[in-house]
Specification:
118 residues, Aminopeptidase, four-stranded mixed beta sheet, 31% helix, 31% strand, globular
């Protein structure tokens, strides 16, 4: 049931456009061990240019410390450039700021607060 539901959700995301899901698979055991999503939106104020958001970055605990998080973030960032994003952004926990800074992401003075409404 879960596999079928996940496949349906993936199909919905694919059909709506603007979602690029990148995964890392351990082919030796046929298991997904990491993933990240690039969401792309057109920004009216930038002549409908594309803005990318890095979301849902995750690596299985067993595989951490092997540079896979770096690999998937760099891959998604390059994908954003390839599809024409003028800007990439992300929200992260404070403890991950240094990690993302090593990959070229920067805190913007006066614009570093992530706010949410749920």
């Amino acid at each position: 049931m879960t596999v079928k539901l996940n496949a349906q959700r993936f199909t919905q995301m694919k059909q709506s456009g603007g979602y690029y899901v990148t995964v890392i698979e351990d082919t030796r055991v046929g298991r997904l061990i990491g993933a990240a999503t690039l969401t792309v939106e057109q920004k009216f104020i930038h002549n409908c240019s594309l803005r990318g958001r890095l979301e849902d970055v995750v690596v299985n605990d067993t595989y951490r410390g092997k540079q896979l998080g770096k690999l998937i973030v760099v891959t998604v960032s390059l994908l954003a450039q390839e599809v024409g994003c003028y800007k990439m952004s992300l929200d992260c926990k404070d403890k991950l700021i240094k990690f993302y800074e090593t990959l070229g992401y920067k805190m913007e003075a006066g614009n570093s607060n992530a706010m949410n409404m749920r």
